[in-house]
Amino acid sequence: MKTYGLRDIIGPIMVGPSSSHTAGALALASMARKLFGEQPERAVFTLYGSFAATGSGHGTDKALVAGILGLATDDPRVADAFALAKAAGVQVDIVWDTTTEVAHPNTVDIRCESREGRTLEMRGVSIGGGAAVIRRINGIDVDITGERTSVVVHQRDERGVLAHIAGVLAGCGINIANANLHRTAKRGDAYTVLETDSAVDASVRELLMDHPDIINARVVPATCAGDGEEVPMPEDAEERFARWDYASGEELLALCEREHVTIAQAFRAREEALCAKQGTEAGIDAYLDRVLEVMGNAATEPLGNPQPSVGGLIGGEAAKLRAALEDADPRHRLVDPLAARAAQYALATLETNGRMGVIVATPTAGSAGVLPGVLLALRDERGFSHDQLREGILTAAGLGYLIARNASVSGAEGGCQAEVGSAAAMAAAAAVALAGGAPDRCLAAGANVMMSLLGLVCDPVGGLVEVPCQKRNATAASVAFVSAQIALSGVQNLISFDEAVAVMDEVGRGLPPELRETALGGIAKAPSACAFCAGC
């Protein structure tokens, strides 16, 4: 099971419009590029499942090309990836396979070809929130998450090869965290995949290649490291992480009581321990400062400079709402200033997302407006400070981690309840924490949201993260406030947070495919939506 950290839940910082379909796709292509060892002359992408059904509207094709070119997830040039590929002389072919059944809805096969005829075939899946896993390399099943730096060795299955690999890494002072051998048959082709506790220098590849039965070796750097430099892993890193790790809401509450800390403090300590275990500087405050900066820009720029989205379905809604709420007639103001401000920011963030601007996935791009809407409104209307907002984000991450770990934050897996529902639960917990509520009240607020939004389907019109996504983000911010207020009032829940997460997971997996981000059901099938798509 993947060990989720801060940047998995609050992040990635990325170009929109979808964390799983854009950032996750880019991450997969980036991993393919690293495995291939260079920029290919030709790349063929075959998309399956939800990738194939909605990938065009989500910019999945552009993201894949951007990853092959080596662009980062927050590079604004992602939108121009095809033109960049043409300029670089990279031939790109996209195959939209909507009929072949695959195990995961966000699946892509990537084939890289060099001028000399060298090839790589890789299958990967985007598991939500921008995270990606390699499932197959050249026909051999593997499991590479990117959680740690990986050394991938293509070899002939002969005696002495594994001893050579282990000896090289040991001689370079590199500790092996996990090792797996995947082979086609005895004495056939094989791949050894090793996860390490620290970074691996490029020179290690040359040492590994100094064996007649090793065909190739590549290093895939960790994709979830902190912002700082690589550092030696402390001897007590595992013990520290075990002290602060938790797997359920019940365990989180026990941890907070045992250590006399808030959820934000507990999650901060867990993140510091996790980064120490991974051999990286945590850089938590610097990362949170950048998160708040990006959130602020994404939530305010469309208010003064509205722009149409890529799909053309949204653009200017936040500015219209602000103008309407400034109307002198109080009868036209149906919500209080706090909820109104949150709605404006949520609408604006989805506008930024829809035009492939830079946003923070919280926990996904499709739900990126809820948490900023709530936090920035609390800052403006209640006077909370920058430092307090950082604590609110950590509280949100503390709950979001549990949802991602024990259920899903992917619309393709669990419907919109897994995206907007999770975001609103996180935002409600953050609001309670900022208001001085205890950890149990934060979890109660999260459970209130999940029960209120249970069964919310994912039905993007035309496969675009625009309609109904934008308005759901705005209304979910109000749900978060109401749920938080109920929890702060001391109202007890029959259903616990952990039970609510489990039920959400069960309901999400029981939804038919048409209601899980395929744009084949729900609002996406309404006559007006179909009429719009007919002109695409």
TrEMBL record:
Transmembrane segments: none annotated. Keywords: 4Fe-4S, Gluconeogenesis, Iron, Iron-sulfur, Lyase, Metal-binding. The keyword Iron-sulfur applies. It catalyses: L-serine = pyruvate + NH4(+). Its cofactor is [4Fe-4S] cluster. One of its GO terms (biological process) is gluconeogenesis. Gene3D superfamilies: 3.30.70.260, D-3-phosphoglycerate dehydrogenase, domain 3. One of its GO terms (molecular function) is 4 iron, 4 sulfur cluster binding. Its EC number is 4.3.1.17. Residues 150-222 form the ACT domain. It is an enzyme of class 4 (lyase). Pathway: Carbohydrate biosynthesis; gluconeogenesis. Pfam families: ACT, SDH_alpha, SDH_beta. Belongs to the iron-sulfur dependent L-serine dehydratase family. This is L-serine dehydratase. It comes from Adlercreutzia rubneri.
